[in-house]
Amino acid sequence: MSASILSSVRGFVFDLDGCVWNGNTLNPGARETLAALDRAGRGLAFVSNNSRATGGELRERLHGLGVDVARHVLTPLEILGEVIRERFGPSRVLVIGSPDMAAVIARAGHELVDVKDYRAATVVAVGNDFDLSYERVTNAARAAARGAPLVTPNVDPRMPIEGGDFLPGSGATVAAIATAAGVRPIVVGKPEPPLFRMALERMALSPAAAAMVGDSVPSDIRGARAVGMVTVLYAPEEGTPAGEADLVVGSFAELARLAGVG
Ligand SMILES: [Mg+2]
């Protein structure tokens, strides 16, 4: 595929961690390229699999780093309620997760079901739950076994913490509940389609009119390819082959050039 494909792409979805930023530092040229794309009228959206932050929190972080063109910033947590509404309509949701997760689901117009009333649940949403108990796992599994779809922001096995240690991630909890229920979870985060689809919807673009730019082949490139987007691997290491991606760029300056704005 020729490089010029990017000059006709009408919108870009950017991965955050390892692409737009590393930790609390923007990657070189990111601010300038994003501003140039915005000035040229290209759509911009940002996605992160971080399921402990809302899009609003990450947007604030981007603004704090001088990226003032970030309007659509999506995380699995942010869109969980929307995905449930699109797939299943207004639902009665049993939440096994943080108070933040329950709040975003309620804000999307769903009714929250107490864990004791699991028989009334029409959807089970599972994330990181620091009050996890055998009763909560049991009742969530029973609700899912009775036919309530099991939805989760991500199936990360671990949450890394300081000092190289970890806590079990939502994937560990989902696995317990899904195994007991005998069902497969619906995953909202990358590489599954919902996060990409929602970003395209926010920019009002079809998949073929937009490019996904990210540093992870399994998560960004495979996921975006599966929904039909153009894919750009961000690989600062010199000589990285494009592999499964349509294109590889070594810098934001190169991306700007290929997109016809630099
Ligand atoms: Mg990344």
Fraction of residues in H or I helices: 25-40%
CATH topology of the largest domain: Rossmann fold
The separation of the N and C termini measures 20 Å
Q: Helical element count?
A: 10
Order of helices and strands, N to C?
Answer: HEEEHEHEHEHEEHEEEHEHEHEEH
Question: Which geometry do the CA atoms define?
Answer: elongated
Radius of gyration: 19 Å
Q: How many structurally independent domains? A: 2
Distinct small molecules bound, one entry per kind = magnesium ion
Binned strand content: 15-25%
* Class per helix and strand makeup: alpha/beta
CATH homology-level superfamily of the largest domain: HAD superfamily/HAD-like
In total, the number of strands is: 15
- Mind telling me which CATH architecture of the largest domain this is? 3-Layer(aba) Sandwich
If you had to describe this structure to a student in words, what would you say it looks like?
With 262 residues, the protein is of the alpha/beta class. It has helices spanning 5-8, 30-39, 55-64, 76-88, 99-107, 134-145, 170-181, 193-203, 217-227, 252-258, and strands at 11-15, 21-22, 25-26, 43-47, 72-74, 92-96, 111-113, 123-126, 150-152, 158-160, 166-168, 186-187, 210-214, 230-234, 247-249. The protein has 2 domains: 5-49 and 190-258, HAD superfamily/HAD-like (Rossmann fold); 85-187, 3-Layer(aba) Sandwich (Rossmann fold). Helix 5 (99-107) links the parallel strand 6 (92-96) and strand 7 (111-113). Helix 4 packs across helix 5. The mean pLDDT is 94. Residues 15, 17-19, 214-216 line the site of magnesium ion.
